[in-house]
Write a structure and sequence with these properties.
The protein is of the alpha/beta class and 753 residues long. It has 28 helices and 31 strands. The structure holds ligand MGD (2 copies) and molybdenum atom. Molybdenum atom binds next to loops.
Length: 753
């Protein structure tokens, strides 16, 4: 694949949303799915009687509008509801080798996968096979493993609660906790940080809290592209007088000004100014910035005693405050401003906003979770929130904004390589078998284990493991050591092309597809970013009757493996309520699940911090934590590279090569860079460079990236995910959470051609 040059670079857009967003949404839906199918899909997305948007995990409001979706949700729906198929003719015309030459966008554009396919050992072409043969092959391979830990079961975050619950049951019944998931690559650091500090790994706000917040901080998140419906929430808050502060190396368009496409006024006028204050932090400078904010807050408290820090809260409900205060006092302003890259005036201004707000919500996403010291990032946020007592009261709290639409639900259902003892005991009680207690592989550990020849079987429940993980070339080689790799998928991607000796593609129903498994209309459930579980029911006629639901696929494998099992695998596809009944008995907060879903269609999961201001830690107290301001070693000629999503992609699914808000068209092989940094290196906007990453003594190089001068802090560059993934070293991961440090890779540039 040779890297293309951009056809147009027009500078960043001022305003997000508006009429262009609406027109874009409709044109995607109609062009790809046709007017009838496209309109029907959009009419039912995020409605009570419809299906959950396969886009992001931002919650729907209680009172929904007729168009409860955004431009990018519409793109995700349109992309799934296409009529085009990648069928047996397609695969007999294209060898694996020729498909490997294509980029992800082309592969995805070939349409829906509609029949089971096999790539036999030594063959260069996928060919069709019957579902029964596929299940037999999987069961035979699993039965033949030397130990169950030679099998790995990956999950992406679109999988429903019902399918996820069965999938983890399958893995554990087999005897392994090898259940890596996209969470390992995503918010794992948030879960780890929060669990340690406040006793639960989830956020502590509900959508309603945004109506009562006085200040909303948004760090390392680009909601304009990745959670566009959040902009409506922010617009309401901003109009009400709440202050919004953004913390990001890039001054992202969505946070500048916003026109709400769901309101008439959104079509005209200048839009609402969203962020009142932007802190252009250096890549990986957040720990220093948060400590600087704390330092400024302590100074304000000294001048306004008792007005900034919530002493009652600190005394009764927290531990570790004195050490924290001392460590912040020991930091110098010089060090904190240098490492964060933000000047003291802006830090003081942000601290004033924080101190002046009765209720503060702190939101964050990948800009904070994918660094070596990512866990420290979130724990510093907790420190700040604790200072003001911003937990367990209306309008305040911590808000990790999740990515995939059911990534949080999959975890709740037990998709985790490190299950708790309580969860395993509940499984044992419900199903009468002994689940394994030793921990399994996470996503990065899976690649190491494959590399070491310890994995023979890989199954991906959705997702694109090969392109989403770091160190692409190494991951591809590692996967090639497996005997059988199985992808349950809706669309073609590189994970179907870099496989084990034998590979299977199992085509699944998507969110928008009507599910008639067991000859009845089935629905599934999903959990959003704020712990609300809702039903989701597809409405479109599936493209082929060879498509199967994820539930059906997992249940059939279970049935093949254990025909006379105490677990009634055959019952599950007939009625998904049978699965919900088991979920109800195993998972806290889900009792009476099947009945409540039928009655109310929704449950709000309990959250002790939010609901009762109770921290479920060993001593019932929330913890202040102390972290060093450690900088990555960056030599004089080197820069820090972060990887970002464009406005026209969903993770590794690329809709087009354009990024409207950043003003780039025609190529994703671009590198956003600071003008002075370029100048110093004798480089200019428009030149083509090679990027080399440096880790220990290793180097990895990618050629052919066009430089774009951009408003980004000195020493920082940004490229697109997944194009830059080959540069991310597999060993460069977050301490404790092991999440790849995709957002801070040390690189150098050289002239290319
Ligand atoms: N349309 C669409 N929606 C999506 C997705 C998608 O690809 N497309 N993906 C979904 C998924 S799985 C997820 S996890 C979310 C991702 O949503 P985001 O987290 O918003 O996604 P990213 O583009 O990775 O961007 C992170 C932001 O962090 C900033 N950033 C980079 N490095 C740093 C840093 O060191 N410090 C700080 N403070 N900021 C930094 C970047 O400039 C960028 O604005 O979106 C979900 N929703
Ligand atoms: N450099 C860099 N790398 C990153 C990130 C980053 O910010 N920077 N972000 C990371 C993050 S946050 C995440 S979450 C991961 C994402 O990693 P993944 O979740 O593994 O990747 P996706 O691109 O979302 O997966 C897309 C594929 O899922 C399949 N699919 C879609 N819908 C369905 C469905 O309903 N059922 C089934 N069975 N299959 C379906 C389709 O075949 C599609 O090709 O990537 C990570 N990688
Ligand atoms: Mo994600």
């Amino acid at each position: 694949m040779t890297a293309k040059r951009p056809s147009k670079v027009s500078g960043q857009k001022e305003t997000a949303g508006g009429l262009t967003a609406v027109l874009n949404a409709l044109s995607h839906a109609w062009r790809k799915a046709g007017i009838g199918r496209g309109t029907r899909a959009l009419r039912y997305v995020n409605q009570r009687e419809g299906f959950d948007c396969p886009g992001c995990a931002w919650p729907e409001p209680g009172k929904r509008s007729h168009a409860e979706f955004c431009e990018n949700g519409a793109k995700a729906v349109a992309d799934e509801s296409v009529k085009r198929r990648a069928d047996r003719q397609f695969f007999s015309a294209h060898s694996i080798d020729s498909l490997r030459e294509q980029d992800g966008r082309w592969l995805n554009a070939q349409g829906r996968l509609t029949e089971p396919l096999i790539l036999r050992e030594g063959s260069h072409y996928y060919e069709p096979l019957e579902w029964d043969e596929a299940f037999d092959l999987i069961a035979a391979e699993l039965a033949d493993l030397a130990t169950p830990d030679e099998a790995v079961f990956y999950t992406s975050g679109r999988t429903s609660n019902e399918a996820a619950f069965l999938y983890q049951l399958l893995a554990r019944r087999l005897g392994t906790n090898n259940l890596p998931d996209c969470s390992n690559l995503c918010h794992e650091s948030s879960g780890y940080a929060l669990t340690e500090a406040i006793g639960i790994g989830k956020g502590t706000v509900s959508l309603d809290d945004f109506e009562h917040a006085d200040a909303i901080f948004i760090a390392g998140q680009n909601p304009g592209s990745n959670h566009p419906r959040m902009l409506s929430t922010l617009q309401r808050a901003s109009r009400r007088g709440a202050s919004i502060v953004s913390i990001n190396p890039l001054d992202e368009t969505g946070l500048r000004r916003f026109k709400n496409p769901q309101q008439l006024s959104g079509y005209v006028g200048k839009g609402t100014l969203l962020a009142d204050l932007h802190l252009p932090v250096r890549i990986n400078g957040d720990v220093a910035l948060f400590q600087a904010l704390a330092k400024a807050l302590f100074e304000l408290e000294a001048s306004r005693p008792g007005q900034v820090i919530d002493h009652d809260f600190l005394t009764s409900l927290t531990a570790g405050f004195d050490e924290y205060r001392q460590s912040i006092a020991s930091r110098s302003w010089g060090e904190l401003t240098r490492v964060s890259g933000v000047d003291i005036e802006r830090i003081r201004a942000a601290a004033e906003v924080f101190a002046g707000a009765k209720n503060v919500i702190f939101c964050w996403a990948m800009g904070l979770t994918q660094h070596r010291n990512a866990v420290a990032n979130m724990q510093e946020i907790v420190n700040l929130l604790l200072l003001g007592g911003h937990f367990g009261r209306s309008g305040a709290g911590a808000c990790p904004v999740r990515g995939h639409s059911n990534v949080q639900g999959d975890r709740t259902m037990g998709i985790w390589e490190k299950p708790s003892a309580a969860f395993l005991t509940a499984l044992q009680k419900a199903f009468a078998f002994n689940p394994p207690s030793h921990h399994g592989y996470d996503s990065v550990a899976t690649i190491h284990a494959m590399d070491a020849g310890k994995v023979r079987f890989f199954m991906g429940m959705g997702g694109n493991f090969i392109s989403a993980t770091p160190d692409t070339a190494r991951t591809q080689q590692a996967m090639a050591r497996c005997r059988l790799s199985v992808q349950v998928s809706t669309k073609l991607n590189h994970s179907h092309l870099y496989t084990g000796h034998t590979a299977l593609i199992l085509p699944a129903l998507g969110r928008s597809d009507r599910d008639l498994t067991g000859a009845r209309e089935q629905f599934v459930t999903v959990e959003n970013s704020m712990g609300v579980v809702r039903r989701s029911q597809g409405v479109l006629t599936p493209l082929a009757d060879t498509l199967r639901s994820e539930v059906d696929i997992v249940a059939n494998i279970g049935r093949r493996l254990w025909p006379d099992d105490t677990i009634a695998w055959h019952e599950f596809p007939a009625d998904y309520d049978r699965i919900r009944e088991h979920i109800g008995s195993v998972i806290p907060g889900f009792s009476g699940f099947a009945r409540r879903m039928a009655q109310d269609g929704e449950i709000v999961l309990p959250n002790p911090v939010r609901d009762r201001r109770r921290f479920p830690t060993v001593d019932g107290k929330a913890r202040f934590t102390v972290h060093p301001v450690d900088e990555l070693p960056v030599a004089e000629d080197q820069l820090l590279l972060t990887s970002i999503r464009s406005h026209d992609q969903f993770n590794t699914t690329i809709y087009s090569d354009n990024d409207r808000y950043r003003g780039v068209s025609g190529s994703r092989y671009v590198l956003f860079a600071n003008r002075e940094d370029l100048h110093e290196r004798g480089l200019r906007d428009g030149m083509v460079v090679n990027i080399t990453s440096h880790f220990d003594d290793e180097k990895r190089t990618l050629p052919g990236f066009t430089l774009i001068e951009f408003d980004i802090p000195r020493g920082c560059v940004a490229g697109y995910y997944p194009e830059v993934n080959p540069l991310v070293p597999l060993e460069h991961t977050a301490e404790k959470s092991n999440t790849p440090a995709y957002k801070s890779v040390v690189v150098s540039l050289s002239r290319g051609n």
